[in-house]
Specification:
single chain; about 230 residues; 7-stranded antiparallel beta sheet; 3-stranded antiparallel beta sheet; 5 helices; 10 strands; about 25% strand
Length: about 230
């Protein structure tokens, strides 16, 4: 499949100033709303990893979600992804390596936003991130988070979101260090026995068969059109 299609040109032209989160939210919301309203276009993007080895290699499974990369611009560090939740919750307050915008395509979740206290970046404990507010994100909700904002989500099964992220702002994400022991049921022991585990540990790549299974699941949920036969 050609890498330069009208969709690639459109997405590449959507220049987002990730330093200005209000502006970034407006631009990303416009992109994600267009994709949410155009099932044909969204289906085409979801089918793309079947023919694009780099996109398929970027797809992964994590205990809290499956992730497909639909489009990416590695030079600018911008990625467009689709996330599918099995109903496993992000129990640990955490931040991210980058700013991002999320649009809820299907389902809902409780979103816990936390007020970050000193230190204002890097490692933190739960008492340094007290409760800020709790919101319910439903189909059509859209929000943008900066890379230092701490949050957690409680998702219902089969919640599907579109996710557009900006360039990396810090070397890794951080989670409340005093709560990381709660990951034990989700994450297999690490042979290296490192003392600090991240909330993102446990991710692995999707096989082609897992990708096609996820593609069928999205069709059964009505997010995309029924699949044509996919071959690797």
């Amino acid at each position: 499949m050609p890498t330069d299609t009208p969709v690639d040109h459109w997405l590449r032209a959507e220049t987002v100033d990730w330093r200005d989160l209000r502006s970034a939210h407006v631009r990303c919301r416009s992109v994600l709303r267009r994709l949410a309203a155009d099932r044909t276009l969204l289906t085409w993007l979801v089918d793309r990893p079947a023919h694009d080895r780099e996109l398929l290699a970027d797809a992964d499974h994590h205990p809290v979600m499956d992730r497909l990369t639909l489009w990416r611009d590695p030079e600018r560090g911008v990625y467009l992804r689709l996330h599918v939740s099995p109903g496993t919750n992000e129990l640990i307050p955490h931040d991210h390596k980058y700013a991002f915008t999320t649009y809820i395509l299907r389902g809902s979740y409780t979103h816990v936003w936390r007020r970050r206290q000193a230190p204002y970046s890097g490692e933190f404990t739960s008492d340094q991130a007290p409760l800020g507010l709790v919101s319910v994100e439903r189909t059509g909700s859209c929000y943008t988070l900066g890379h230092t904002l701490i949050h957690q989500t409680v998702m219902e099964a089969d919640t599907v979101t579109l996710f557009m992220r900006g360039p990396r702002e810090q070397a890794r994400s951080y989670a409340a260090t005093d709560m990381l022991g709660r990951l034990a049921p989700l994450v297999a022991p690490d042979p290296s026995d490192e003392p600090v585990k991240r909330h993102t540990d446990g991710a692995r790549g999707l096989t082609f068969d897992e990708y096609t299974g996820l593609r069928r699941r999205l069709a059964s949920l009505g997010v995309v059109a029924p699949p044509r036969e996919l071959t690797s």
